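User: Fold this; tokens only.

Assistant: Input:
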Amino acid sequence: MNRFLCRATVAAFVAAALPAGAGERGAEPGTFDYYVLSLSWSPSYCAAEGDQATPQQCRRERPFAFVVHGLWPQYDNGYPEFCRARLPDRVPDQLVGKVIDLMPSAGLIGHQWRKHGTCSGLSQRDYFDLVRKARERISVPESFKNPASPLLASPTGVETAFMDANEGLNAEGIAVTCRGRFLREVRICLTQDLEFRACPEVDSKGCRAEQALMPATR
């Protein structure tokens, strides 16, 4: 039962924020056009999933703001997934421990490796090192680092705040996603060298709501 609940929790988290386009299952590793760094607003995930949210991420004494949902290899149209990498599916505990500060769920880390990391053409260690470098590439605006009160934000305003905080990032290379009343993710497109780039397909999938709720960190 615990294993089933863990899988259901990961599935709910992933379903809330799928990459743009259609997935190509079993694609050739290392053959893709760019990356999407997906930053999830953790309080929205916790509020939306309630009792089904992973305790590692959502228990009261461990507040998180933006966390890394994943670093996703993308095609200009669609994306690869669950690629044919001859590498272990399981991420060792030691490696999980090195990335848990960015991706605060062991289940999420494992799923992201199997679905997306296998498509990078990198080893597990090199992939998660790249995840860290990608996250360090991005400056999160001060107003989103630890808000004590809920924010009612416009997706366009969130994009603008990230562009102001990150020189070279423009509106064609970032998208904000929503689900229901919650703002869920900021997706930033990066070259394989982690430079900002345009991504029309990802941008076209952005939230069109005038405002969305960003619950406070706890």
